[in-house]
Design a protein that fits this description.
By secondary structure, the protein is α/β, with parallel strands linked by helices. The protein is built from twelve helices and ten strands. A ten-stranded mixed β-sheet has the order 3-4-1-2-6-5-7-8-9-10, sandwiched between helices. β8, α8 and β9 form a beta-alpha-beta unit. α2 crosses α12 and α3 packs across α4. The termini are far apart.
Length: 339
């Protein structure tokens, strides 16, 4: 079985609920961080799951909320504290969900920023049916921006002039496209001929007809010029952009690469993006890190049941890294969007 299928099966088994595998640790508490899980309508059909973390009163009552496999104590459904708050929308990687980057979202909320994440339709741990329909991803993320500015209960507290985007892996590709990137999906053919064992190429082999049809169609990419700043961690499909494809991505951009990424190996992804951007980004190469180290440190439940995403290279401290990672991401958005 491929590493991709092992990962998705492990996540599905874990998140669908396994008997007698409750995490023994008490849920951590985050006073002053509000939280909501919602569904927003999608004009293309159905609804999209979203999760929102935001500043709340320090004494707001806390309740246990589950972000994927992580139970946390948050100020569920508390009113938003403050006005003119920046907004950061968040896009997960292939097979993830809205809670995939909960610790970064919590850090943003504690810094006074509203963080809204979605579960991409057809590209999540429950449903992989549209995993290669990459043009759907920026469309859905723009829909989230629209929803947060017009329909979310706290929309009046958001400053529409201060919006950023955060994405990991396929989500990193998503935010680059939303910010103005124009990838050429026909580049996947030569890329995968040269690297058939890479994660993205293994994914394409599961849907070869769909992937080829989408590439031939030369899709219209949805952009959103309201995005004023971008963080892309280990972006997928970096090779597909090139200088022409990233010429319009002129926003401040923080780019991250794991030095020992075995899922999206150097230099075809983050480095390809860095080399093609019209303005040099704030570039972080994380020594000793692998791809999944951009996900939060695993609790015991995840370590037992999804080891693929929990195992870090020998000597790498994921918890310590996330303290730095979240601090740098928050500082970047505070600096570029205003605190």
């Amino acid at each position: 079985m491929s590493p991709l299928l092992r990962l998705l099966f492990a996540l599905a088994a874990l998140l669908l609920g396994l008997p007698a595998l409750a995490d023994p640790a008490p849920p951590p508490a985050y006073p002053g961080v509000g939280y909501q899980t919602l569904e927003m309508p999608d004009p293309a059909g159905g609804t999209v799951e979203i999760a929102v973390w935001y500043p709340a009163a320090a004494d707001a009552p806390l309740a246990v909320a589950r972000n994927g496999s992580y139970p946390l104590r948050l100020a569920t459904d508390a009113p938003v504290r403050g006005e003119h708050r920046p907004l950061v929308v968040m896009s997960h990687g292939n097979g993830g969900e809205s809670g995939s980057h909960w610790d970064t979202a919590v850090a943003l909320a504690r810094a006074g920023i509203v963080a809204a994440a979605l579960t991409h339709t057809g590209d999540n741990w429950r449903d992989q049916s549209r995993a290669v329909h990459l043009p759907e991803r920026p469309r859905q993320l723009k829909l989230l921006v629209d929803y947060m500015l017009a329909d979310w209960t706290g929309h009046a507290t958001i400053d529409p002039g201060r919006i950023g985007a955060f994405g990991f892996s396929s989500g990193g590709f998503t935010v680059l496209a939303l910010a103005g990137g124009e990838p050429d999906l026909s580049a996947t053919g030569p890329h995968c001929s040269a690297h058939p064992t890479y994660y993205d190429c293994q994914l394409i082999t599961r849907f070869p007809g769909a992937a080829a049809a989408i590439a031939r169609a030369r899709p219209v990419w949805i952009h959103d010029r309201r995005i004023r700043a971008v963080v892309a961690a280990a972006p997928a499909m970096g090779f597909a952009f090139g200088q022409a494809g990233l010429a319009s991505v002129t926003q401040p951009l923080q780019l991250w690469r794991a030095a020992d990424d075995h899922v999206l190996p150097h230099p075809d992804y983050a480095q390809a993006v860095r080399d093609a951007l019209p303005t040099p980004p704030e570039y972080h190469v994380v020594p000793g890190a692998d791809h999944y180290d951009f996900l939060p440190p695993c609790n015991e439940l995840l370590r037992r049941n999804a080891p693929v995403i929990c195992a870090s290279p020998a000597g790498f401290d994921r918890a310590a890294f996330h303290e730095t990672f979240n601090r740098e991401v928050v500082a970047f958005f505070v600096r570029t969007l205003g605190g």
